[in-house]
Amino acid sequence: MAHEGTDPPRPPGLNNTWPGRTSPTWTSLSSHLGDSVLDSGLSDPHASNERHTARWIGWRLRMLVAFALLGCLAFFVLVRALAMAPHIDATWRVDAQGRIQLAATQEPTLRAHVGQALIGVLGGDTAVALNDSLALQRSPRWVIDDSDRARQQVLHEQLGIALAQPVVKLFFADTTKAELSPVSRGLTKLPIMFWVLSLFAFGLYGVAMVVLLAHPTGRNAVYAVMALCQAGNLLLIAVEATLEFGLPAPFARLDMPVRMAFDLFTAAAMVNAACLHPRRLPGSGWIALFGWAVAFGLVGSLIGGALAHAWWWTQGAVIGLGLLAIALLSWSYQIEPHPFALVLRRFGIVTVATWTLLTVALAAANRLPGMAHNIADIGSMVWYVFLGSLLLLVPFLARSQNFMREFSLLAAISTVATSLDLLFVAVFSLGQFASLTLSLFISLAVYTGVRQWILNQLRGSSMLTTERMFEQLYRIAREVEAQPERTPALLSQLLGDLFEPLEVDVVERITSKTRVAGDGSSMLVPVPLLGGDATPRGAVMIRFAQRGRRLFTSEDARLTDRIVEQLRRAVHFDKAVEQGRSEERLRLAQDLHDDIGARLLTLMYKAQSPEMEDYVRHTLQDLKTLTRGLAASNHRLSHAAAEWKSDLAHRLTAAHVDLRWTFVFDEDILLTVVHWSALTRVMRELVSNVIAHSQAQSLEIDFRLETDRIELTITDDGVGSNPRAWSHGLGLGGVRKRVKQLGGEVEWREVAPHGISCRVIIRDLSARW
């Protein structure tokens, strides 16, 4: 049972924001997993395998084997007992008058009585009068009236004694009788429904033991209680499917208290589970204690004979405890928007709604002969199969395949169809065909309407379009190539846009592939080595997809792995392209240096005048700067600024123009060749225009890099005016083209008292890399 108290408060910080916040947090701290349970396999696969092996090589494995052997032994004993039980090979049904009618038989002595109503059974000294169909209703649990239930138990016990005799006489309404000897049916004559339900119950039992032994915690113990109770219900239904009438004495006497306990304990365990999972609620101990007190109190009252109207109390208590569990899950989601709480709440709503519909249908059909028998046998079995499939689905919800999800939905719709069919017959007095047709139509309409919505809530879908995804991948690939240390942050941003989680953290955990938490609340994505790093950079932990409205699934993990692989390929391809560019630039630089440089050097030595020699020397200096820039793949901004200042100062000094240089930056970034070349040519062209046309005495250059924004201002005190009237030739046209290439803008304007100022602005510089 749960204990009183709440989980420790989450530490203050960006990750402590819940519904209402507009964006996830991006941190580089280790993830604080808080109240949610993460799959222990969210780590390196080798380490996970070692821990998994160590976990099971020990008392857990021995206990699991012991429980499996115990279950198999009990099942074999049960099968042998049923195979050896005396049996009359006949099929019975309820006629229009509510009597038991022989429908079919393989017994030669009974074939002449097919279609006749059975009114009595005599075996030895035990005579049983059959005045209605109560003997055909297999389970006392689904008999509404207390007096009818007591009479049914007596009938089953008497029939069991009579059928155990060597010779049994059957009396029919047409005054005929048949005398036969019941024989053991053997294993081959056990009905298929028995084997299907038994295997289902055994599978549910096995899953309960695995979940409990894998992590022996309070919440897993509560799940095991629910699974074991429903396995018991399914096994009892399987046993009843082998008997037409005449339950053995232990089954007839224990069926009502045992199955009532199974249902009430399941409902109480649901309340307890809602208090503990996906997070512990305040006052969880007292709330869970209340649920268990209701369950044990009702079961104890029934055993003590002090509970009147036991069926109504049981049905009402299950509905009340189910509604309490739904309310607790809603409260849990308000405290922490865990998507598993939403999924459990949806399952709870469907479960309680179908249980209520089954209750109403059985109560309405109770006054019609034969109807209660049908709904109790068919409707309750379908509902228990539905609940069992949900319990099998819950531990593996994030990894379950579509088949299991579809099976659960179909089981729920089958429960609705069965209940509606019997409800229409009981309340609206419809014929069997009309009722069946109408109930199937409504059920299929409901299934068609809600199926895709329910599956979308479980699986979800990406909100990014293909075009935007490609744009994001390309941009991140370029940024990672330039700044490998930003890989975790960029990957976190991409995953945030893709899944819209409430939390995105970079954690120090090593994993080779994307892994999803067992409850689907979290997903661990490895940070790929995209920048040539030798050591892994940890992983990105994202929690609560679509702002806590859905679970992560195995499909999400596969999608993420494909995205990471595409990102890795994009980076490698871009590196290959850039390497080709670098090699080509290096070849061009080498050719310029060896060929053009050598010719200019020869021309300088053969110059006929000092002016020509000085001009060639300046040309050689420009060529040297150009080839050095082409040979380098990246340029540190501070180094490039020093070269720009030296080159421009040399040219302006030769033209007798004073230079005032201002350089301010908040980050010494690496300029790519494209950025370096464009900025170099822009400044050279603007300075060349000042020297050639402005007749300026001084020139001021102000270069600023602040918050990823470049602002370059070049101002002269020359004779230029009215820049709007200028005709832009190759020089100014080239300036506009290069600035536009960098995603910037350029403008010229007059300054007082005279001169021209050119202003270049490049925003979001890193986004252009």
Question: What report would you give on this structure?
Answer:
The protein is an alpha+beta fold. Among the domains are: 99 residues, Pdz3 Domain, CATH 2.30.42; 135 residues, Histidine kinase-like ATPase, C-terminal domain (Heat Shock Protein 90, 2-Layer Sandwich), CATH 3.30.565.10. Helix content is 57%, strand content 13%. It has 20 helices and 20 strands. The strands form 5 sheets. Strands 3, 4, 5, 6, 7 and 8 form a 6-stranded antiparallel sheet that branches. It has a 5-stranded mixed sheet with strand order 1-10-13-12-11, with helices on one face. The protein has a 5-stranded mixed sheet with strand order 15-17-18-20-19, covered by helices on one side. A hairpin with a 4-residue loop joins β7 and β8. α6 runs parallel beside α8. The chain starts with 24 loop residues before the first strand and ends in a 7-residue tail after the last strand.
SSE map:
Layout: E1 25-27, H1 45-56, H2 59-84, E2 86-87, E3 90-94, E4 100-105, E5 117-123, E6 126-129, H3 146-163, E7 168-172, E8 177-180, E9 183-184, H4 192-214, H5 218-241, H6 249-276, H7 284-303, H8 310-335, H9 339-365, H10 371-393, H11 402-428, H12 432-459, H13 466-482, H14 487-499, E10 503-507, E11 515-516, E12 522-526, E13 539-543, H15 545-548, H16 554-605, H17 610-631, E14 634-636, H18 637-654, E15 658-665, E16 670-672, H19 673-694, E17 698-706, E18 709-716, H20 730-741, E19 744-750, E20 756-762
Parallel strand pairs: 1-10, 15-17
Antiparallel strand pairs: 2-9, 3-4, 4-5, 5-6, 5-7, 7-8, 10-13, 11-12, 12-13, 14-16, 17-18, 18-20, 19-20
